[in-house]
Amino acid sequence: MARYLVPLIFGLAGVAILIGLGTWQMQRLAWKEGVLADIEARIGADPVALPPQPDPEADRYLPVRVSGQMGDDALRVLVSQKQVGAGYRVISALDMGARRILVDRGFVKTAVDIPAPPEGEVTITGNLHWPDDRNSATPANDVAENMWFARDLDQMATALDTDPLLVVARETSFSDGPVTPLPVDTGAIPNDHLEYAITWFSLAAIWAAMTGYFLWRSRKTAKGDTA
Fold it and tell me: What is the pTM of this model?
């Protein structure tokens, strides 16, 4: 019996560790779902006036309603949408009188011309956003060719002579077709904890099966040796 004790302890310890990791991921999943629910509630709240000095942390996703005159120039940020294909986010300046800000008007396909901005004062309802589009594989923005690969607020603000402040449109007081709003949501926030939990629990089951098989084979071999 003693010959089976060490592999049995080793097997049970491995199963316990793997189950513990899976349980921890389930706890992380519940936490992340709560965070995402809070963000969704914040995104969909009633809009307010633009704060004088928005804070990137305290005011992230804050719903706002802004009015002003849209600038003539538009920046094109390359993006891709599922089941739609490649296109651009259209970024324009909004002159509010006392300040100029950036507005993400939405998505347009690459083969379609960006429409001229509307005349006169417009009103835009959307969310404040400090996007994090850039990673190690993102190319540098080609400002001269108006080809942008990431919404770098400082660089876009310099190009359009605005404050480095972005409102992502959800609704507009004008028809901006063929540009369609691409509002802020939680789709880009990773939540892989369920997949991780399934992986750990699956490994625990495999580990338990391998331990059982090893003990069975060892016992069968031992019986053969004594026969």
Answer: 0.77
